[in-house]
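haha ok so turns out i had the wrong file open the whole time. this is the CORRECT one, sorry everyone. sequence first:
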Amino acid sequence: MADGSEGDITITRGVASRFRDLLESITDGQDGVIARKSAALQAQIDDYEDRVTDFDERLAARRTRLEQEYADLETALSELQSQSSYLQSLLDQATSNLASILGTNG
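then structure:
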């Protein structure tokens, strides 16, 4: 101790000061726990939004393909019905001709 001194003084940080530092480490807008958690959650949200957008695009493309396939099937069915009608008319005509032949020769 120096002459005229009455003792040593030890300065320590109080509980309030430590608590303030803890709160600052949590709430700091750049490096705080809340900011990091918020950034991580925002990144997750962005990822989910990207995934939803991709899924919507794939779904729209699938829908377009299915609609085209349906239209193609409708066209094919219409053509088959037309062919069926044509074949039925040929069969009816052949039956009529056969009946006519058998009726005149019988």
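The mean pLDDT is 88.
again sry for the mixup
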